[in-house]
Design a protein that fits this description.
The chain is α+β, with helices and mostly antiparallel strands and 678 residues long. 51% of the residues lie in helices and 15% in strands.
């Protein structure tokens, strides 16, 4: 039995479309299961003016079967096997007959059980409840109300279609009653009748509507390919723009427009930014070179494109003319001259000017470089130069008018000034998630650490989904950069240095910052790197140096489900559990008595420096291998040695030795967090 639900609304905000699609999918499945209705071929659709689903449902809910235990058999039946009054009362309370009763043997004797079968309701009766729950379960960023106490909902509701096969289901909400009439594309401005759900998508297409997100995305890509083939060009397929077209249209149609060729004299990124960020159109290349053309989309038939194209061209030419004016004004000065102007640009309230930030970033960059063992020579001069110029483009007219070009303008102007390539690259890469160059990576870490630490110091701490300064993203970027560049740098050292430069150091802020970065590292290792949750919890013990936490997690994940993993975990647990409440690590091997004690001690003396040396060289694979090899010696020790000897001095000496061994294991993480593999 096919069911169609369509909710017609005013144009949806772009930001809500993909969220609604995901919510509809999960809510519909959840509700069908909750109401015990088997479903097949669920198709979700969301477009600019409609949302809903098409699905094949069973005609009835599944029956529910409940069981209740009644009296013991000897109480339920008399000596002749006839029901007693106790059983008859039990049957009445359950609403069943003697045919629905089973006698079951249990440990304490035999008991009567009533099997209560409750027939499922017809889907037609249940469907309005499901749809109501579905609508109520949707959440939006900014819901609205309209009319007389209607809403809240994402946008005003104008029509509803709810059908089972060829029949309209009795349902209404937001003052609108369900029918079989849907609305065409706004361009046609008509309604159309749906005779049966199976024809819904074809009828929509006939009325210039493509309801499914994936179908519209496929049409966008097809339109772009057709333009490339027709005109012999390459369209820069920006996924963000494609998503926007998919979200804002019901029948996307592409066209090729042009702007004045003279603007190609501007740097390529300037033109591309004006096209993408200001007019939301696609740039066009030919033979790898930017052309004075663009691809835009209209929501409707191709006949609209001629008029719309002229409007696009006029606005793009105006924007590019502005860009050329600002660019030419800026180039009367070298980039370094703009550094002085940063004294009059506020970075953030209580954190000084951008000039203050630049000075902090210079010192923090130098500090990062020193931690890498290079505090002199060419790299130091490149890092310092990049840090000095890092925010200079913020004071340019071009960035003021086109803020999306921050960093890009810095790279362009620095290159035109003849700055070293590493410096030019770093000026753009400082804003990237993970830079590709060393200078850019150092600058990126210093800049983001300064922003995060500064905001925490003045009380701008993210809470829940509220993160106006993007501190979570910046912190994650720092961690990813440290890991990608394999830099063994202490996070605590970076945070302390940044607080010191801000002259805001206090232990409470430092602790809060450290926990914040630790949480971001946990998310990074589990969600982006894909490590098992228990392994992440284990290696978070090394979070002070994020790269080491990553290395340890990588090795443990690699050996999980192997005997080596089991040897590592069991060996650790045996020495740790017995020393859990013991803190001393000083012991005297001359006081050992048993042969197994000396044997384990000899292995420990040999392996401890090897483990520490491997860790010093960031070889966590070798360190884990060495530690796992201790398992048989540890087993023999506990088979032969009674640790809790009645002689206090012997007992304490043994515990101290085992504690020292346990702490060696913990150099690769808190192994207590790891799950045993059976």
């Amino acid at each position: 039995m096919q069911v169609l639900f369509e909710l017609g609304v005013e144009e949806l905000p772009e930001s809500e479309v993909f969220s609604i699609e995901k919510q509809l999918e999960s809510l519909a499945r959840e509700l069908f299961e909750k109401y015990r209705i088997k479903y097949r071929d669920l198709e979700i659709f969301v477009a600019a003016r409609r949302m809903g689903f098409l699905v094949d449902l069973d005609e009835r809910q599944e029956d529910t079967i409940m069981e209740r235990r009644g009296p013991a058999s000897k109480v339920a039946f008399d000596e002749n096997g006839n029901p007693t009054k106790a059983l008859e009362g039990f049957l009445r309370s359950c609403g069943v007959t003697l045919d629905d009763v089973e006698v079951r043997e249990e440990d304490k004797g035999s008991y009567v059980y009533a099997v209560i079968r409750k027939p499922g309701r017809r889907t037609e009766e249940v469907l309005p409840e499901i749809v109501s729950s579905l609508i109520e379960g949707l959440h939006f960023t900014k819901p609205m109300k309209w009319g007389v106490n209607l809403g809240p909902f994402v946008r005003p509701v104008h029509w509803i279609v709810l059908m089972m096969n060829d029949k309209v289901v009795d349902f209404s909400t937001f003052g609108v009653k369900a029918d079989r009439l849907s609305s065409s594309h706004r361009y046609l401005n008509t309604t159309f009748t749906i005779d049966e759900p199976s024809r819904y998508f074809d009828l929509c297409l006939n009325n210039m509507v493509i309801p499914r997100v994936d179908d519209r995305r496929a049409r966008v890509h097809q339109c772009l390919r057709e333009i490339e083939e027709t005109h012999g060009v390459h369209v820069v397929k920006d996924e963000e723009l494609i998503d926007e077209v998919v979200a804002l249209t019901e029948y996307p149609t592409a066209f090729l427009g042009r702007f004045s060729e003279e603007f190609l004299e501007l740097p390529k990124p300037v033109v591309e930014t004006a096209l993408k960020h200001h007019q939301r159109v696609f740039a066009v290349l030919k033979n790898g070179q930017l052309k004075n053309a663009f691809v835009a989309f209209v929501d409707g038939p191709e006949s609209l494109s001629d008029t719309v194209s002229l409007g696009y061209s006029r606005v793009i030419n105006a924007r590019l003319d502005d860009a050329r004016f600002y660019f030419e004004r800026d180039r009367k000065h070298c980039l370094e001259e703009f550094v002085k102007r940063l004294e009059g640009v506020v970075f953030q309230h209580e954190l000084g000017t951008l000039k203050d930030k630049v000075e902090r970033v210079r010192q923090l960059s130098s500090f990062v470089l020193s931690k890498l063992g290079d505090n002199a020579g060419k790299l130091k001069s490149l890092v310092d130069r990049a840090a000095l110029l890092s925010k200079a483009d913020t004071a340019t007219m071009l960035v003021y008018e086109f803020p999306e070009l921050q960093g890009i303008v810095g790279r362009i102007y620095a290159s035109m000034d003849g700055e070293p390539e590493e410096v030019c690259q770093a000026l753009e890469e400082q804003y990237m998630d993970v830079p590709s160059g060393v200078v850019g990576a150092i600058l990126s870490i210093a800049d983001k650490i300064d922003t995060v630490v500064g905001n925490f110091a003045v009380g701008n701490i993210p809470s829940g989904s509220r993160d106006p300064y993007g501190l979570k993203r910046k912190a994650t970027s720092v961690l990813k950069t440290l890991i990608e560049f394999e830099w063994d740098i202490s996070l605590e050292d970076l945070l302390k240095k940044s607080l010191e430069l801000l002259r805001m150091h206090d232990e409470a802020t430092l602790k809060t910052l450290y926990e914040f970065f630790k949480t971001r590292l946990e998310v990074l290792l589990e969600e982006e790197k894909g490590f098992d949750y228990d392994i992440v919890r284990c290696t978070l013990a090394l979070s002070e140096t994020p790269f080491r936490a990553f290395l340890s997690a990588n090795v443990i994940q690699e050996i999980k489900n192997t005997s080596e993993y089991n040897d590592l975990l069991v060996g650790f647990e045996r020495v740790f559990n017995i020393t859990r409440n013991h803190s001393e690590i000083d012991f005297d091997p001359r006081r050992f008595i048993e042969k197994a004690e000396f044997e384990l001690f000899d292995e420990f003396v040999k392996i401890e420096p090897e483990v520490l040396d491997a860790l010093d060289h960031l070889d966590y694979r070798e360190a884990v291998r060495k530690l796992a090899s201790l398992r048989p010696h540890i087993d023999r020790y506990f088979d032969s040695v009674f640790v809790m000897d009645k002689d206090l001095s012997v007992r304490m000496n043994r515990l101290s030795f085992l504690k020292r061994l346990a702490l060696l294991f913990k150099r690769i993480g808190d192994l207590n967090e790891l799950e045993k593999i059976e």
